[in-house]
Design goal:
Helices cover 71% and strands 6% of the residues. By secondary structure, the chain is mainly alpha-helical. Strands 1-2 form a two-stranded antiparallel ribbon.
Amino acid sequence: MEDSFSDRLSDAMGKSYVLFSRVEQSMLSRSKRLNLSICELNFIEAINKNPLVGKTIGEIASELMITPASVTAMVNKLEKKGYVTRKKSIADGRQVYVQLTENGRHADRIHKRFHRNMANTISCNMSESEKNLLVDCIERINIFLNSRLKKMEEFKS
């Protein structure tokens, strides 16, 4: 019985990942104003979590669990596209913050609206307890995935 559940859950998660990625990419492809990939949108979302100050390369790398060199490459790309800008810290001129431009903030709003609409559509006929259970399950998945990533990072070291 347990194997059947594990198989069903595994299949459902795999299908959800593929479908989510395809729907999100389709939304981006249809947009006339956004010339961004999903990966670029995730960077923009991370930067906009501190909209007034922006984020340093190290902060972005830490949040997205990637190398600072990868962040620098993506920031260069997004800067050329006009979605981000770099500003030196007033307090410490050695510190550089990445901030969103108006185009970057617009892209983040569109991305957030897409996620919010999806969440509202999925949960529209759910009771509060079902909604809470769904969020709890997704949070458990995230805890598991984070622990696996940490173990993999420790193994590489």
